[in-house]
Structures are given as structure tokens and as C-alpha cells.
């Protein structure tokens, strides 16, 4: 089965959920707390570092620490993180291959927002 991460995020409820959470920062804080716990799951070892990078990116935006971000990229990242922590997505996480779709979505999003993440990492290295 070939997964298309773009279709998964854009054709489902994920973008509208992301928009909702971005407009409700207290709710978004709960999601990013879930991401921190979820990132250590065995099936996500291939993208664990990427998940934590996205986690810190969103956390720093929500807390007001990082302000120089692209709202469209934030929307995409938040959609991916919501997808990640939702156990009943395209391939439910309780199945033996349940994280294949999650890994695909995170990998695709990292590629799509790579310039934004580089900019964020430069900021982090200059503002510890």
C-alpha cells in the first residue's frame, strides 16, 4: 500500500482541526504535551528526532518565544502532530504496522517545511 501524506493531511479533517487548535492556544498546548509523550513510541524511532523538532517549533510559537514563523507552515505542522497523536488514523496505531502512516506524514511534513525548520533552528542556536 502506497501512502500519500499530502492527501492524508489535506483531504481529511486534519487541517481544519489544526486551524481550530491554532486559534485555541490552550487546546494546542494539550496537543503538544501529548506529542512529547507519543514521540517515544517504538514505531516512531525513525522520525523521533523530527517529531521533537516539530514539537519544540510549535511549543516555542505557542509560548511566544518564536515569532518569526510562516502561518501556513505552522498549520501544516500542527495538522501532522494532531495526526500523529490520534490513534485511529488511516492505519490505527494498535495494529502491528500502525505507525507506518505516521512516519510517512512526519517525513513528508519535514520535507515541506524544511526551510522554515532551518530558519527556526538558526533562531534556536542564536537564542538558547
What does this structure look like?
The protein contains 7 helices and no strands. It has one domain (5-126). It is globular and about 35 Å long. It has helices spanning 5-10, 14-23, 25-38, 48-62, 71-85, 100-112, 114-126.
Summarize this structure briefly.
The chain is mainly α and 128 residues long. It has helices at residues 5-10, 14-23, 25-38, 48-62, 71-85, 100-112, 114-126. It has one domain (5-126).
What layout of secondary structure does this protein have?
Layout: H1 5-10, H2 14-23, H3 25-38, H4 48-62, H5 71-85, H6 100-112, H7 114-126
Q: Runs with pLDDT <50, length 5+?
A: 92-98
Intertermini distance: 42 Å
| Structural class by sheet pairing and helices | mainly alpha
Percent range for helical residues?
A: 55-70%
Output the radius of gyration: 14 Å
Q: So what's the overall shape?
A: globular
Order of helices and strands: HHHHHHH
Q: Total domains, how many?
A: 1
Tell me the total number of β-strands.
Answer: 0
Which descriptors apply to this entry?
128 residues; mainly alpha
